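Can't paste images in this forum, so I'm doing it all in text. The chain is below; anyone willing to post the predicted structure tokens underneath?
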Amino acid sequence: MSDKPQIAVQAANVRQIRDWLDRNEIVLVDVRETSEYEQEHIAGALLLPLSSFDPEVFPSIPGKKLVLHCAVGKRSEAAGKMLLKQGHEKVVHMTGGIEAWKSAGYPTEFQILPPNEQAAKPVFLCPPPGKVLKEEYLDPLGIAPKDLAKAVGVLEGRIADVLAGESSIGVELTLRLARYFSTAADFWVQLQLEHDLERARHSLGEDIRKGITPRTSTL
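Text version of the structure:
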């Protein structure tokens, strides 16, 4: 008995994608949610949120590669697999997402807020996994939290806490959700990790930079 081959989405790093974009060889599609896109996005990227992503009606783009991106690369890979299953070709996802793009020093566009709203709160680009679970899976699929809890074998309160952002997703729950939604095994726990890292950078990053000097090797 042979296993079904896994569908793999071609991956490209931000340097390659920047080069393609500069040469007008690709269509860049942002699969994050509207609120994330409005806070910050890559200039020229089209917005097609994963929560309303429909591979059956996704347009073909002759002569150009289709490059998908999200915050850290997980949702874009999932969207790419959906398109490949539907028969689309030349689908690429950007590894590391917009976070890797910014880390490489490439520019983004920001939503201009009124003066009294600027700097009121830090902007978070990596949403909590509970928000992704609700907006991109439960709501579009019409699944109630209590039904999800029953399907994955956990208490209803556990799912409610995750959706409310009051509880983190650990390795056990990520495996249960991955099995039910047919995502990569580490999809949910990676969303949690990226969200937690971003929150820590906002709250502790400056203190850590000031208080810790990187070790250098002495020969």
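The chain has two domains: 10-110, 129-208. The longest helix spans residues 187-211.
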